[in-house]
Amino acid sequence: MRNVMLGAMLVVLLTTGIGYADLADGLVGYWSFDNDVDPGHDDSGNGHHGTVVGAISTPGMVDNALSFDGIDDYVQVAQNAETILASGHACTVALWMNMGSLPAISQRTVGCERVNDGFAVDLNGAGLEIFASTGIEPHYSTPITIQVGVWYHVAMTFQEDHTWDLFVDGELRATLIQDWNYFTGDRPLIIGADSGDYRTPTEISTFAHATIDEVRIYSRALEPGEIQQLAGTAEPTPAEQIQEILDFVDESVGDGTLVGVGPGKSAENKLNTLINQLEQVQDFIGDELFVEACLQLQDAYKKCDGQSHPDDTVTGNAVPELAEKIDKLMESLSCPPAPDLGFGDDFVDPWPDIYSQNWIWKKSGPWENIFENTYSTYLSPEHVSVSDSKLVLIVPANQKEGAEIRSITEDFHYGWYEARIKVSAEPGVVNAFFMRSPVGNNNEIDIEFLSNECGTDTGKVHFVLHPFYEGQPHDSEIDLCFDPSEDFNYYAFAWSAYSVDFFVNGEPKASMPVSLGFPVPSRPGQLLLSNWSAGIPDWGGDPPDSPAVMEVEWVSFTPQGD
After folding, report:
1. How far is CA 543 from CA 135, 401, 419, 431, 536, in A?
2. How many CB atoms lie within 10 A of CB 21?
């Protein structure tokens, strides 16, 4: 069996959207402390306004914050915390905090408690921790060391499987398994102090010496990515990343650090092609067409990655940074890396969708291919499958239809192309293994079989060059000493700037050098395999009377020089 694609990876693409839930979803209380007249105002719109006792307004992490002196300052948000949160249900507490000193005994920065019953973001001399209890005994997570005078974003989540998680600056730092399944009596929600524990069960005590900002309480457990957004540590969204890339390109073009390769109009066209491609990526991301965005990004990356397969189409000091930004966006979209063009595929993976799992191929269709403005064949993805580690391309009986796969990349160029193929035995179809450029007129190299030329112990193969200028294709028809529909055989061509050479089962069969006037193609293109019928009298003939099957065991490509 052939080796699978060099460096390939299985990829799971996001198909249901990129980003996180609305951060207003489940928000039951939000105290930004930015209101000069009423700093305890609840900005969530739910009316849970806090009463500020002693704490004073000061510059915070986001606009204003409240400074708590550690002696008697606090904010009482509600006399009964159950008006905000239902005990035992999922929740999140999040805030920015900057400690003025570390306490000798536990202090609650935000929480609700009465005689060890409740929860809080707790702080003691050892560090930051989770406090949770059902009234029997207190439970604490392993303390997280923090520094005095440093801003930290802290978030504590509770899920209904009894799991508490503590995040510091967006990173999960501690976990505690402990329920909190009831409140007893009037239990206030307090910011900056303890709402009453075994030491002082009926009064607020053990005050925090800290500056606190942007306190949020949710009636759900936020996802880690959402917490990172609040902490400012989240990666920018793909939409933000592509906008940043476009802005960077615009700035770099303006200052001359990004230009097209080549003279005059050619350089301008190459630069504009890249810009148009990136703008198309932006449209795809906006429409949540992430597979299409990945394909365009892969191609754009190869225009600026500094590799010679293919050569870059842009140059300048900005190119390395541009390539890095495109690569990072591909990572955010879970795209595979832009592949090395050298590959081998033995079709071992199921192929239920349009794109192959190894990210090499795409099924063609559904569409019509027109020949000589007279004949046509309908290509359908439904006629393509993988069975028993073989690619299967089927033309239905009595139909002018076809099956085709094409490489996702359009950058295959000089090198060694090979495949192991069993041609259809049913007369009436054309089987082909070929390279075709999507740019220009008939820039194509073909290995083709007409199934009506196959017979007992005999058959033919056509090696064809389509010129990149107006003219007739160059067809070298070779008689074979075997029937190519009886078994799998090995077919190959070597393409260089000077010649195309064709091989059957390792033996050279035809050579078409530039020196003898052959129009050797020069542009890179896609690799394709197809089985089709269009009813062309001198090229395949009438459609097959029975289903016509072409099978492929493997395909590979090695770039020139590798």
Report:
1. 82, 8, 25, 13, 9
2. 12
pLDDT tens digit string along 439-479? 655 589 999 999 988 877 789 999 998 874 445 567 789 99
Q: What is the mean pLDDT of residues 481-491?
A: 93
pLDDT for 239 beyond 80: yes
Cβ proximity of 321 and 257 under 8 Å: no
Sequence-distant (≥ 6) Cβ neighbours of residue 179 within 8 angstroms? 88, 132, 134, 162
**Tokens standing for 78?**
């509600």
Sign of CA dihedral 437, 441, 447, 448: positive
Task: Tell me what pLDDT residue 382 has.
Answer: 95
In total, the chain counts a number of residues equal to: 562
pLDDT digits (tens, 9 = 90+) for 256-278: 999 998 888 878 888 988 998 89
Q: Which amino acid, 218? A: Y
Pick the CATH number of 27-231 from 3.30.450.20, 3.40.50.300, 3.40.50.1110, 2.60.120.200: 2.60.120.200
* Residue 549: φ, ψ to 5°: -115, 125
CATH architecture of 343-559: Sandwich (2.60)
